[in-house]
Amino acid sequence: MKIIKSNKKVFIGVIIVAAVVAIIPTTLVYMFSQMSIGIEKEDSIEEIDEKINSYFDEGGFEKDIENAIRKKPSGDFNIYTYTSGSDESMEIEEKMNIICPKLIEVSRLELGKEYNIKLYSDFYEKDKQISTEEILSKDIVGTSKLQIIYGDTFMEGGSKRDMTIHIVQNNKILESAKYYCPTNYNEAAFTQDADLNINEDIPIMGFARGIKVNGKYKTYSADFHKSKDKIEKSIQNNLSKNEKMVILRLEISDRAKSI
Questions:
Q1: What is this structure's pTM?
Q2: What is the mean pLDDT of each run of 10 residues along the chain (259 residues)?
Q3: Residues 120/129, Cβ–Cβ less than 8 Å
Q4: Is the N end or the C end of the chain the one with fewer CB atoms within 10 Å?
């Protein structure tokens, strides 16, 4: 990706030369259109040049690479986490005037459908579950995206354990919950590109406190980057390797069936 970006002019030149010698068949045009460049058969050389420049300068290339490596849908909803500094997080910060260290996006909700959103916390010592706590519950109406903003007060001089979680739709906070993590932790993990079915829950965050070995903590975070079953299996495999672990789970249920 860096090679292509650093040689953008060469990339543009190749396409323009191809257009000049008329070797851009329909299939090649289709390929470029799928890359979100938007090249059409009737475009002039100047229009092609302008579209490719915009494609790179406005982040289209990075977005296509990101979409290409994302897994194909296999559930009712998809959960994807964006880090601080991503276009999505920065857009939220700009529109809502809020700090957004982690942005968890839930997509494929059915427009207009009534859902209930719940967030739970499970606290473990080794492989023994100590407690389960409901952090929040909120009835919503489906939109194209549901967003969860997670943050703590560490960067403001506070504690990593002092957390705030916001439920967001259409750039508006629907519900906020204060949560004090029951343990100090060495590592945090977040679910990345996982699918979830309705009336199920899935781990979306994990906070692990490792075991001290020769004065240093050795910590084993679960793998949060695959399916619900694989995430839960990874959590179970790593519980006994840590001193303590906290898992936050998201549940999306159909309100019509729960009433």
A1: 0.72
A2: 53 55 48 60 79 74 57 78 91 91 94 96 97 96 94 86 95 95 95 91 96 92 89 96 97 81
A3: no
A4: C
